[in-house]
Amino acid sequence: MSMKEFQFEAIKQKISTLTAQKESFYGKKYQGLHAEDIKDQKDFEALPFTDKDELREAYPLGLMAVPEKEIVRIHSSSGTTGTPIIIPYTRQDVEDWAQMFKRCYETAGITPMDRIHITPGYGLWTAGIGFQTGAELLGAMVIPMGPGNTDKQLKMMMDMKSTVLCATSSYALLLAEEIARRGIKDKICLKKGVIGSERWGEKMRRRIANELGVELYDIYGLTEIYGPGIAINCDCQSGMHYWDDYMYFEIINPRTGEVLPEGEMGELVITTFRKEGAPLIRYRTHDLTRILPGECPCGRKYPRIDTIIGRTDDMVKVKGVNIYPGQIDSLLKDVEGASSEYQVMIDHLNGKDILTLFVEADSSYDKKVVEHNLATLFKTRIGITIVPKVVDIGDLPRSEKKSTRIYDNRY
Ligand code: ZN
Questions:
Q1: How far is the CA of 217 from the centre of ligand 1 (A)?
Q2: Regarding the domain with residue range 90-313, which homologous superfamily does it belong to in the CATH classification?
Q3: pLDDT tens, position by position, 49-74
Q4: Which of 88, 171, 322, 408 could form a disulfide with 71 if both were Cys (CB 3.0 to 4.6 A apart)?
Q5: Do 242 and 231 touch, CB atoms closer than 8 A?
Q6: How far is the CA of 306 from the centre of ligand 1 (A)?
Q7: Which of 197, 222, 195, 225 is nearest to 207 (CA)?
């Protein structure tokens, strides 16, 4: 992906401002670097990456790149693995994020006449409030539910005639299943679902779409880079458009750091060139995707990334083969009777790795046949022999949070 002239100039300007403050995060990180020495894209691509660990070390406010009087809010990434990351936002950052989010809703065909039912959480993390400010800027009616309490969710959804559901994929699935179980589908007015913050398979997508009777749009984002709302599907459903007037995207080989050409799968790296409170240069997202070549049939000029197929950290090596969760999603799609819900257990017994794949399947299918087909396809596509175990629909845990599906018990 070649960098556009205005992106290059904006990035250079940003680096110049950041390195001028010797005590700031980038003043220290890029010590000795002069923005005027960055002459082209190649020079930019030689700059060191920024990684999550450095952001953690800057806790609490080490990332703040403007005087405190300009900061209006902070957000924080979930600190499940230790120290959280704090991202300070200026008024302009909050406004820019809302503009990008509004653009996401518009790309999904959502209008000021929609009633937007928001189930992601409010608080330190960026989800709920991002969905809300974007919807308000659009002029739609917000129903700010937050997560949990399925009874209340469904009552409000029916009484308020919500037309758009914003949720994680696992929570959307939980609500869809509950609507089917209670037989209230005809009282639900949803037309669209905006689904964020998780990797999910085509089969799960189809189940949610069918059971809720809605069109679904993947929304992408991460707390470190504004939050959700930096990319979304259009009606063509061929990748997610991202807002290259705010950010520059690169795809790298996660092992070598080498920048990959358009179309190749690798780790997404983002540079923000308009962010003020905590700008990030070459930030490694650890999300695996690719930049889609060519233009979208919808005619929008914004470039596209493919659906996120997994995280570099989720990649597991079994019997010498790298496996991404996204590969399992796409494999399940091609096994008749198998649902999108699965769990992988990896164990080490008698000197050998053993991968057990639990998959929910419709009880009208013969379990033995589904298991045989799963094992055969896994062997031909991914190259290893597995132990398939088919279970009934609903047997595997559902979660309102990001679900973990791969359990590595070897270490
Ligand atoms: Zn498009």
A1: 12
A2: ANL, N-terminal domain (3.40.50.12780)
A3: 999 999 999 999 999 999 999 999 99
A4: 88
A5: yes
A6: 12
A7: 195
